[in-house]
Structure formats: structure tokens, C-alpha cells
Amino acid sequence: MDVGTLAFSALYQFGDAFAFLVLSACGLAVIFGMMGVINLAHGEFIMCGAYVTVSVAHTGLPLPLAIACGAIVSAMVGALVELIVIRHLYERPLDTIVATWGLSLIATQGTLILLGSTMAGVGTPFGSFQMGGYSYSLYRLVLFFMALAVLAGLYALFNWTRFGVMARATIQVPHMAAALGVDTRLVYSLTFALGAGLAGLTGGLYAPTMTLVPTMGTTFIMEAFVTVVVGGADVFLGTAPAAAVLAVVKSVMTSWQGQLFGQIGLLVTVIIVIRVLPKGISGFLLRERA
Amino acid sequence: MSGKIMRGLRAAALSGTLVLGSGVAFAADPIKLGVLEDQSGDFAAATIGKVHAIQLAAEEINKAGGIDGRPLELVIYDTQSDNTRYQEFMRRVLQRDKVDAVFAGFSSASREAYRPIVNQFDGLAFYNNQYEGGVCDANMIVTGAVPEQQFSTLIPWMMEKYGKKVYTLAADYNFGQISAEWVRNIVKENGGEMVGEDFIPLGVSQFSQNIQNIQKAKPDFVVTLLVGTAQASYYEQAAAASVNLPMASSVNVGQGYEHKRFKPPSLKDMYVTTNYIEEIDTPASKAFFAKFKAKFPDEPYVNQEAENSYLAVYLYKQMVERAKSTKRDDLRKEIAKGDVCMDAPEGKVCLDPKSQHMSHTIYLAKVGADHSITFPKVWEDIKPYWLGEAGCDLTKSDPSAQYTPSNPPPKP
Amino acid sequence: MNALTRFFARLEGPQTIGRGPGFWIGFLVVLTGACLYPQFSDGYTVGNTVYFFTWVFMALGLSLIWGYGGALSFGQTAFFGIAGYSYGILTINFGAAYGFTLVAVVLAVAIAALFAVLLGYFLFFGRISGVFLGIVTLSVTLVLERFMAQTAGPEWRIGSARLNGFNGMSNMPPLTIPWPGGDIVLFPDVQLYYVVLGLLVLVYLLLRILVNSSFGNVLVAIRENPERAEMLGYDIRKYQLGAFVIGAALAGLSGVLYTTWGQYITPSSMGMTAAALPIVWVAVGGRSDITSTLIGTLVVLSAFQALTIHGSQYALVVMGILLVLTVLIAPRGLILSGASRIGRLFGKRGDA
């Protein structure tokens, strides 16, 4: 087996782990990282996106459009949830654990009752390609580039748009932002909806590759929290390097000792990183910069 | 006195008990069956059908006059795929509802959670589920298939057809590890070679690395012992990466009807040994399937566990009518005779007195490119031989333990 | 004598609701009721009540760490599991004779507490706080769960005790009290009920004394404002570590009692859902008061069980709705909000 093949396969595994971590975490990074809301219903927003995507795709619409629908519906559900529940809890971030856990129970069991225990999938598009004796799924590369696109999009959104600047101002010093005429309520609503929408996008993107069941969101939860905590509060400076570091840990451990050690490696990395960098990677980077 | 009756009535109403088939008038006391199955949570997809099958059997039996003239009454609780709920409700059905027998459990962990309680109250529990085998316990009757029945048929057949190099991909817990051990032993006995084994923790849904490992090992076929809805994502991901290897399994299709849920052709060339699936084309199977669909038209799939549960009710009826008693010891005397058999939808099944496990007709189901099912081979009367041969004999002693090939019963 | 009086005077104080003869008469009435009730009930109900009681210790421990100390531990189940498994390993190896099960209880709780000392030192002396503390403790319990889940093979054994992976460990003896003329085996029935009830009352009263002592006052000061507490000269890390270890020992006690109750312990007891439950019980009852936590936990446990029995598949949905409503309508917890309302009704200052 030549070096090129080995290098490509290692890179492919890294990219695959990276994409999963970034996409799992991006919605949570906005909601937990920026707003401090511990959203245990994050997985259910992902499930919502996946279900909507597949339902729309079954009607015959092309998959990219279906995924967009999934993201938009999730964002709308997110806005609604923020309005009814989350809005009242910004002063008490720890209470959001109980509330969002309740929401996640309602969502999973509600989906089971309304839509049944499973849903037929749509199949993975694009087929596969050959590389040095291995065949790879092309769609996995699409996921990797989508992860990069999401990161770039978030960077652009928070740095170059009016909403991004207002959101960052609101989250850093809410009363100051309010004094300067920012509608902080609206900003919080939009930010939460954005996080939920990103979760829905993730669900839509992974829907073709997974079993569709009401509990599917839970498989994303651990990776999402791990990435966000390692990353810290800044969405771009945190999530991207955290996902990169964790993807290396996960893909190396998994190829060396199997999936169990990949998972345990992730959890141990979190414990170590928090001990060394209590504010996550982005806290460290920002302090260095300042 | 009247207060007591009132309390009893209220308890019956509250615990959701249901006397089915009230069209027939019964003079005698009902026989109570506890049903603890996961109607919500992770395992719901595969287990709701079990409850429906028991309801169907109970309704049929009550319409035909009950068991020895006594109506059958079901006490059903939803265990929410949660081990602690099994512990709570097993005590409840045995101590409060005072049921005569309990039908309980999907996951092996749930069975192990309730087994000490059944032993403590000396109850009788039916575990109507295929599992990793090895439970030697006089309080338990197992109607599901066990590894020796599914692998001693499947693996030699696969090796003959596709080749001797085998790769196992298994869930990283008791069921997967013990099943993988069975596969390893049978492959070795038949002169084959294990080119790789990979264990996946429960709840993992991403398989890129494992797919690559399999391609590297170049096996002739892959044995997939994946469990749970998250792990089922493997098939879609393997198909997307064009792994294109034949697969052999003891859990898929027959339990989680993956061929109905996934878009073809992700399960192409999957071979499964199962004791029942709804596609089986015999008159008995078709009649059972028709009755099931008539009562539960929305049932997504009638799987092997549903059939196991259905036949278990009739098996219980037969034992009670032969013993003229619902006492566990009287029933076990009937089992000890070794002729507790019946014609189930799958074919003839018998209870083995030594292990209280069941012989089955084993069907080899092949999934086609369009996810249609064909049956290249059927084995009749495959016995759950291992426990008895290894030294478990419930007619003589009751160790109430679970054994595995690498941890067999102590030799007498 | 004087010291003793002072000690018992701490049963009341600013950190606990309920004071004066009225409260203590009520307490005695409830206690008498709890003592007499097995006489009027069946074995199932009593055994089921014991089951509820076993969880309360873990909730009380979390109330101390989170409600009083302000440090959210999302991983109490780690100590629960460690103690449960320790009890299993010890008793399967050494049997139940000569009252060894009681020694095993103490040892198992001590092992859990020792683990908490190590973890707590790592956390509090590393200045990890807030949400991050929750995530680290959650990670610890998840690591333990994943690891234990794959120990199915016969090579995973300690002495003659097999860990037995995801299927869980069973066959450990129930609690046994040595007695002339035959050991008393405490099956989950009336006997075990009185033992656990006694433990519960003892722990409850000791915790009341603890939180009203200077230790408890400093703990609350840390919760309210850690910097200020530090400026006043307290080493807040030691206080938080102390509370953490006591809370962990109580979670361990829950773990041991649960294991003896069902003669079974499983890795799922350390999983995500299991880890979230104590937080729910404590938050619903009212985390900043141990009486509220105690009542709240019992209410939530029995309500959830009743819902599962009678609500069929809608049970989980109703539970979810109840949780959301509780957080929105009674932010301090149902029991605590209710108690302070009743307190106001009687014209007293009811809250802590």
C-alpha cells in the first residue's frame, strides 16, 4: 500500500470526523457558546431537520431544496420555542437544562406517537469513487465541504453583517447594547432561531446517511457538547479549531483501537482541555490576541 | 368486605387491565398475564408488535373459550426502554397484580434487570426474544432463537457459497461480543479464517473508519451484528461507499425490518437466519399475517419477536391445560416430559426441558437488490443444543445464571 | 452539654425552611405516619416506597452541591455507579455472612467518596466552575458508562465478580443483618423499609445541622458571590470540595441501596438519561432547600411512575410538559414556592 493511499485515507477519516463534529456542534455553538443556554433539545432540532428534509424529498423535490426546507422549518420551530420557553430563562441558564430536557422528551415521544417509530430513508446521493484499492462515498466529501461552508458563513455573518455585530454586542454586554438602541429581545430570538436552523441543516445533511427514528438526535449530542466546550464561547475561533483537534483525536484513536477508544478519547480530551484552558480554545486565543 | 372489592375494582381500573373478548361469559377467575414491553423509547420500533401479538393471541383464546374455561386477562405496562422501569413493574405485576406469568423484555439488559426479581418472588417469566443465549434459570422460558440456532446454520452456508474469509462487525456489548464469539468458533470449526473483528459502542452512528477497515481486510463476506437504530446507519453508509460485500446477520431484517426502512439497494445481498418474518410463504404464516393485519392494519411489520410472543401465549395455554394448574412447578413437570410442542406460524416448535429454550424452524432470508425477500434455504427443527450439552439441566438443578461459550456452566 | 445543645439548635436556621414547634410537630406527625404506614399497606407498595427512598439520598447530595454550593454536578450518577458496582464486587467476593454486607455498604460509599476527593480536587483546585463543571462531571459519568458497557467478556472480572458489561451485574446478596438464630435478610419489603427510612431521617437531620452550621453559611456565601467569600478570607475551594465529597457519598449511598434493592446494577445507571434525572428532581422540588428537595424528589418519582402506569404512551410527553411548566411558573421549585406561599399565608417569613 503506497504512501499516497494511506495519506488520503487518513485525511478522509479526519475530514469525516471533522465534518461530523462541526455540523453537530455549529447550532449548539451559537445557542450554548454565545447565549449560555444549555440546550438539551439540540438533538431534537437535528431530528426535526432530518424528518422535514426526508418528508419533502419524498414528495419529489430535489435533495438540496429539501435540506433547505429542513433548516428553515427547524429555525421557525426554534423561534417559537424561544418565544414560549427560552425567553423567560436567560437569567437562569441552569434552569434551561430542565426545560430543554422536558422539550426533548415532548419532541421525541411526540414524534413517535404522531409519525410512528421509523420513517423510510431517501438513500445517499452521488455514489462512490475509487482511490488506491478503497472505495469512498462521495457524499462524505460533500459533508466535509458543507462543514467548511457553514464555518465560513458563520464567520461572515458575525463579522461582516449588521446582525452579527449587534448579536455580539448584545451577548457581551446586553444592557449596553440595549442602551445603544439594539432590540436585544429580537437579537436573542434571531440568534436562537439561527442555532436551531443550523441544527436542522445538520439533520438535513445527515438524513440521507442515517436511520430515521425519533431518537436519532441523541447520537449527535455528545459530540456537539464536547466540541462546543472545548471550543469555548466564540463560534468561529472556537468551534473550528476544537473540531480540528478533536477530529484528529477521534480518527487516530478510532483507527488505532476502535470506536470505543475514539469516544473515550473525546471525553478525556474534554476533561483535560477544560482543566488547562477553562475558557476553551477561543478563550485562550482571544487572551493571547489581547 | 365491600371496601375490599371496591379497592380491587379500582386497582383493576387503574392498572389498565383489560379483559379481552368480553363476548363470551366466563364463570371462573381469569388467568392473568403481565406484559412488560417497550412501547416508547429507543426500542419501540421492534417491540410494539410484540404487545400487539400478545393482544391478538389473548383475544383469539378468549373468543374460543379461554384457557380451560378461564378467561385470559392482560396487565400491560410500558417499560419505556428503561431498565429501572422493568424492575419497578416486574415487582408490581408479581406482588400487586399477582399475575400467573409475565411476558417481558426486549434487550438483554432489561432481562437481567428483572430476572433477580422474578427469582426472588419465584415467578414465571417468558422472554420472547432472540438473544445471545445462555440463560439457565428455572423461572425463565425463552421462546426466541439463540446463537447456535442462527449461526450453526447461517455461517457454514455462507462460507460454502462465498468463501472462507470472514469479517465480523458487532455491537460492543454482551449480545455482540457473545455472538461474535459464536461466529469465531463456527468459522474455525469449518476451516475458515477470521480476517477481522470490529466492535462498535451502542449509539454510534458514523462508520467511515470501519468501512475502510473492512475494505482493507478483503473478506469474502461480513457478519453484521449491529444493534439499535443508530448502528443501523452502517448499511446506508457502506452502500454509499460501494463496499459491495455479501452480509450475514442474526439480528437484522427479522427484528428491525431494515429492508423496509432503508432505500434499496443498501441491504442488497444480506442473508439473515430468522425463525419468522412476515414474508414467509407458508399457509400457516400467511394465515397468521392476515389475522395480525386485520386487527392491527397500521402495523409496520410483523417481525420474529411478534411471532415468538404470539406462540408463547398459546404455549402457555397448552401447558396450563395439560397441567390443570397455573403453578410454576406443575407447568415445569409438563415441560420435563419433553413434549410441549405446537404448530406455530413458523412451523413446529418444541420446548427443551433442560434449558427451557425452544427449537425453531430457521429460515434463511436473502434480501435482493430491490429489498424483496427470498428464502434460499429452510432448516427444520433446529434445537437450542448448547446449554444442555454444556451442562445446564433445569430438571435437576437451577443455577439461575447466564453462561457463555467462554464461561460455561461448571461441570458436575 | 452546652455544645450538644448548640449542635441541635442548628436543626433550625437561615438555610432551611421550617422552624418552631409547628414545623417539628408536623415533622413528627409525618414521621409517625411513615413508621405506621407499612401496617396498612401491602408488600408491593412498601417495597416501591423503599425504591423511591433510595433515590432521595442522591437528590439530597445534589441539593447540597448545587442548591447550597452553587456548583452544578451533572455527574452524580458516576458516584452512584461506582458505589453500586463496589458493593457488588465486594459482596460477591466475600459473601454476606457475619454482616459483611453492612461493611460492604460503608466501604462502597467510602470508595465513591474517595473518587470524589480526587475528582473534586482536580475540578475545584483547577478553578473550573459554572457550566464547565457540569460538562466535566457529565463527561466522567459517560466515560464510566461507555467503559463498563463493553466489559461483557469473561476477562473482565474482579475476583469472582464478573462485571458483565451492558447486561449489568447481578447475583449480589441483599442487605443482611446478623442475628442470633438466623440472619435477617432485608428484601425490599417492610424490614428494608425501616432501615432505609431510618437512614433517610438521619441523613436529613444531619444535613439540616450541616447547612445551618458555619460550613453551610460559607457555602451559601460562595454560591451568592464567590469573590466576596474569598475576600472574607475563606478558601472557597476547600468548602466546595467538602460539599462535593459529601454529596458524592450520598449519591454513593443511593447507588448501594439501589443495588441491594434490585440485586442488580447496570452501566445505564451512569448514562445520559440517568444523569439528567437527579437534576430534574432537585430543580422541580426546589434545589436551595433540603426539605423541598426531599419532598420534591418523592413527588416527581411517584408522579412519573404513576404517569407511566396510567398515561401509556403519552407519559413521556406529559412529563416533558410538566417540567417545562415547572421551570416557567415556579422557578424556585414547586415545593419551595408552595412552602413560602403557605408561610406568607400564616404571616411568617416562610422562605430561607
Tags for this model:
heterotrimer; A: 290 residues; ABC transporter involved in vitamin B12 uptake, BtuC; two-stranded antiparallel ribbon; globular; C: 352 residues; mainly alpha; 6 strands; 69% helix; 3% strand; disordered C terminus
Structure overview:
The complex is a heterotrimer of chains A (290), B (412) and C (352). Chain A is built from twelve helices and two strands. Chain A has helices at 3-34, 42-58, 63-84, 95-115, 138-160, 162-172, 174-179, 184-206, 218-231, 235-257, 259-276, 280-289, and strands spanning 128-131, 134-137. In chain A, α2 (42-58) packs antiparallel against α3. The longest helix of chain A has 32 residues, at 3-34. Chain B is globular, with a radius of gyration of 21 Å. In chain B, a hairpin with a 2-residue loop joins β13 and β14 (347-350). Chain B starts with a helix and ends in a 10-residue tail after the last strand. Chain B has 14 helices and 17 strands. In chain B, α2 packs parallel to α12 (304-323). Chain C has 352 residues and is mainly alpha-helical. Chain C has one domain (2-271). Chain C is built from 14 helices and six strands. Chain C has helices at 2-9, 20-36, 43-68, 76-94, 100-124, 130-149, 190-212, 214-224, 226-231, 236-262, 272-285, 290-310, 315-329, 334-345; strands at 157-158, 161-162, 169-170, 176-177, 184-185, 264-265. In chain C, β1 (157-158) and β2 form a beta hairpin. In chain C, α4 (76-94) crosses α10 (236-262) and α8 (214-224) packs across α10 (236-262). The interface between A and B is large, with 46 and 41 residues.
